[in-house]
Structure formats: C-alpha cells, structure tokens
Design goal:
With 178 residues, the protein is an alpha+beta fold. 60% of the residues lie in helices and 15% in strands.
C-alpha cells in the first residue's frame, strides 16, 4: 500500500523549509558563506524553488492537510519501515557537485523530509553496507511512527540495532580506521 501524497508532501515540505532558510538565513549565507556554501544553496534553491511571502504562509497552513492524510494512513500502519534514500548513501561532498549532486543528496530523500514536514517521529539507522567502487557505504532505513509515539519508534530502532549489531564497527574496519 502506498503512503498518501508522499512526493507532494515532500516537495511542498522542502520548498517551505527553503522558504524559511531563504528568509531567515539568506542574508547570512550571502554575507558569510564560502563560495562553495553559496553555490550549494543556490543549487538547492534552483532545485527546490522556495515558497516566499503569502505562498509560504499558505503552504504552511496546508501542512495540516498532509499531516491529516498521513495520520489516517498510520491508523492502519502505526509503524512504517521505509528507505531513507532509494539508493545507498551518497559520497561525501556530493551536494557540491551541482544540480546532479543536489538531486542525489536531497532530491531522493522524499521519505525524510516529508515526515519532517508533517511532524511525525522518525529515526534512521544503518541496516546494511553496500560496496560501491570498492568503498563501503551505509544503507539506512527510516522508521516512522504515529504522532506522539516516539516511544514506539525508539523501541523499534533499538530492536533492529540489537538484531543487526553496530554496523559502524564493520564500516570503520572496512575503511581501515584504527
């Protein structure tokens, strides 16, 4: 069963977040951000055009609609195991590689920012390691719980980690960390 309005919730949520970032942090990013940081935010704003002014207020008001749809869905599915990304985790500095990098880093994280937008408790943990070009990359899963059920989310995350162990130990060993 597909969750309600996943892509729409994610897109509206991220565009509203960037509307806030543009309004509240935009001047500081321009004044104090390195050229690289300024370029990253320019790419974010190009990929996810920020809502501004009345449009931002309207979408923040519409957030209730999305939260309601998810709330109804989660009456039937009180705990959802979802991907964090639909592919293994991105390489360091991937968001510094233009719009293609932004697409890999943020464009694919629909589950993450849709859930942040509607305010449901969630948590991520590595569930496996993928070998890409001879390098290990974590594959994260995200657990999403009903509103006000942080306890359920944390308990499930602890159960998964108890079963899988600490994958960071294997990751660091494979990376040659001391």
């Amino acid at each position: 069963t597909d969750p309600p309005l996943l892509e729409e919730t994610a897109l509206m949520g991220y565009r509203s977040l960037l509307g806030e970032v543009s309004t509240l942090l935009g001047p500081d990013i321009k004044a104090y951000g390195s050229p690289q940081v300024q370029q990253i935010f320019k790419d974010y704003f190009d990929y996810f055009p920020p809502f501004e002014g009345d449009a931002l207020l309207k979408i923040l008001g519409q957030r209730t609609h999305y939260a309601r749809q998810w709330g109804l869905f989660m009456e039937k599915y009180p705990l959802i195991l979802a991907p964090f990304l639909p592919q293994p985790f991105f390489a360091p500095n991937r968001d510094c590689e233009g719009l293609a990098g932004v697409s890999d880093v943020l464009g694919a994280a629909l589950w993450s920012y849709s859930i942040n937008f509607i305010g449901h408790p969630s948590g991520c943990l590595p569930a496996g390691l993928a070998e890409i070009n001879g390098q290990p990359y974590p594959i994260n899963v995200q657990l999403i719980a009903q509103r006000w059920r942080e306890d359920l989310c944390v308990a499930a995350l602890q159960d998964i980690e108890a079963r899988l162990g600490h994958l960071c130990d294997d990751l660091w060993r494979r990376m040659g960390a001391p």
